[in-house]
Amino acid sequence: MAAARGEFSSRFGFLMAASGSAVGLGNIWGFPTNTASNGGAAFLIAYLVLTFLLAYPALMAELIIGRHAKSNTLTALKYISSGKKSRLLAVALGFAGMITVSFILSFYAIVSGWFVAYFFDPIARLLGMDGVAQWLTTDTVTRNSIFLIGFMILTIYIISAGVKNGIEKWASRLMPSLIIILLLLIVYVMTLAGAMDGLRAYLVPDWSRITEPQLLVDAMGQAFFSLSLGVGTMLVYGSYIRKEENLPLVGSMVALLDVGIAVLAGMLIMPAMYVALANGVEIYDAAGGLIAGPGLIVSVLPSLFSNMGFMGIIVALAFFSLMTIASVTSSISMLEVPVSYTVENHGVERHKAAIVIGSLIAIISLIITFNFDPLFDLVVTYATEVSQPLLGFFFCIFIGWIWSRNDILLEIKQGCPDAESGLFWKIWPFYVKFICPVAILVVYFQ
Ligand code: TRP
Questions:
Q1: Residue 369 has what pLDDT?
Q2: Where are the domains of the chain?
Q3: Which residues, 6+ apart, have CB-to-CB distance to 24 below 8 Å?
Q4: Rounded CA separation 257/202 (Å)
Q5: Which of 98, 167, 233, 391 for mutating ligand 1's site (highest number of atoms within 8 Å of CB)?
Q6: CA–CA gap between residue 47 and residue 259 (Å, rounded)
């Protein structure tokens, strides 16, 4: 059966890989968009609170199960199950997670493909190829198909190379670049007229909205999506962490990096929108709200960039390389879920598994692209709003009610010997057992 398993070679490697998974379109596009449409900082605060109260405990659940079992999601859940019924549930949850994450990847690849196309646009303009630039920025089925396939090939290529030489190597290079590009862009945008209005809209909360059910639902969805929870992504990454690593510590570092980069992305996108406004670009939609959705990234920002002359080309290049990096380090973590299962449980070679599964997902993406209107929203909604929270709920049930508390403690103690007397162990077990599942259900049925 199992070939030798990969392992992250250092704490830095794991942190880059896991924060790379967490930091993605969810942070740079989803979070600022959600913030814009939910009353600015009111949303930010709800998101921060929910991340630390609900998503971080769920993240820890996945990391602990993963590192304990040192195997893919399905096998890991089976491994911690004691009875026949819970083993059955483990198999169901494992498969449901793999299917859900594959669908998430199928729409993620489409959106990422748009941004990759926009990344090539300033290059084409620099080379004076205006026709190509026009093609790259026009929403057509051909362009979308080509770029989603290219994006999937890149994802497959990295996953084929394995944990250390693929995931870790790429994330360790790309994530620091992402942070540097993001910071440079923020500094630059802040110098432009209108930026301060955007910062104000972002950071001054509209308190009246903080209790709105829709705001809370969006904030929880955002927190779970952003930390890549519920489908086994973090479980699989956890399974590649060394035993001497302190799990509560590295888990909180991942959550902090994720939240930190989302907050920073907001400090880029919101001011950029108001700079666009100051430049005469329309930033409000028909209903009077800020343009959110895809329009924000593929219309508002490009219009802004094209108003900025040569500097706009540089900024566009930087911005869309940021989006591309964020996407790739996330998409690889999604493909790893079904690939690790196929490699370990069916003895398929890694690169074969990556090619076959990656191609199947690309085919689903193509089907969605060709039938965009009925399918895209449907897939996004089912995968992220219906399936993902429900699976997250069952993960909490597994760790809170099925796996023995003693084994959990033993696992955490490796790498964190005095865990038993620490704050984490005083709060977390109760939390994942009672508070998390109930809270997920409450928000879910909102
Ligand atoms: N967290 C990533 C983002 O914010 C996306 C992501 C990666 C993801 N793996 C996942 C989302 C697994 C859900 C499930 O964009």
A1: 98
A2: 8-445
A3: 108, 226, 228, 326, 327, 329, 330, 331
A4: 20
A5: 233
A6: 9
- Report the Cα–Cα distance between both ends of the chain, in Å, rounded: 44
Residue with CA closest to ligand 1 atom 6:
228
Maximum C-alpha span of the chain: 66
155 in contact with ligand 1, CB cutoff 6 A:
no
Atom of ligand 1 nearest to the CA of 224: 13
What is d(CA 63, CA 252) in angstroms, rounded to the nearest whole number?
11
**Assigned fold of 8-445:** Amino acid/polyamine transporter I (1.20.1740)
Q: What is the mean pLDDT of the chain?
A: 93
Contacts of 219 (CB under 8 A, 6+ apart): 34, 38, 43, 46, 47, 50
Whether 334 is in the pocket of ligand 1, judged by its Cβ within 6 Å, is yes
The residue whose CA is least distant from atom 10 of ligand 1 is: 228
Q: Is the CB of 225 under 6 A from ligand 1?
A: yes
CA of 84 to the centre of ligand 1 (A): 31
Over residues 331-349, the pLDDT tens digits come to: 999 999 999 999 999 999 9
